[in-house]
Amino acid sequence: MLKTVHLAVYDTFSDWEAGHATAHINRALWHREPGTWQVKTVAISAEPITSMGGMRVLPDLALEDLKPADSAMLILPGLDTEHHPEALAAFARKAREFLAAGVPVAAICGATFGLAQEGLLDDRRHTSNAAEYLGYTGYSGGEHFVEAPAATDGDLITATGTRPVDFAREIFARLDIYEPHVLDAWYRLYGNNDPAGFYALLEYEQQRAAATR
């Protein structure tokens, strides 16, 4: 059965922050079960969205039509929080709905600010750009903040905006897209720029191809 990961898009969304995650979810190479995953975009309305990098995106569906039962995960990239508070709040409310239904949510950079405002970080282990950054929301979860590139607490993944590769690794692990040794090789390549990771992935793909002949 095809599983769908939904990517939130809103004007000024940080297109690079979810890029590693969405590209490798959508690309079947190295997947435990190739052909299982797809990515769809969701926005407040069906109107075109322009990312911070100037990419124009036509959303696949409107936020009001997104149901947790139809999704494997909701990914929330950062955005210009000061100028688009309505998008931040709307998707934070949807994140609450997802978490209540037991469907994972992954938020990075400015999106974590919205989750803090919504009270979703008050009792969950989390990270963000800085503890002081989230402190501006007035939230009550400061004691659960961790100094880490990315953090997972049950169905919630959070990350600092400067570490999209770590963010992607947490997403892949939560969705169980790769076998553990494949995920390790993926991170060695993309996170550590270690050529050994590439050769480990190449060997894995060659072995799998040979097994199907």
Automatic annotation (TrEMBL):
Could you state a single Gene Ontology molecular function term? Answer: transferase activity
Classification from the root reads: Bacteria, Bacillati, Actinomycetota, Actinomycetes, Mycobacteriales
Q: Which Pfam families does this chain map to?
A: DJ-1_PfpI
Q: What are the residue boundaries of the DJ-1/PfpI domain, all occurrences included? A: 3-172
The protein's name: Glutamine amidotransferase
Alphabetically list the UniProt keywords.
Glutamine amidotransferase, Transferase
Which SUPFAM superfamilies does the annotation name? Class I glutamine amidotransferase-like
- Source domain of life is Bacteria
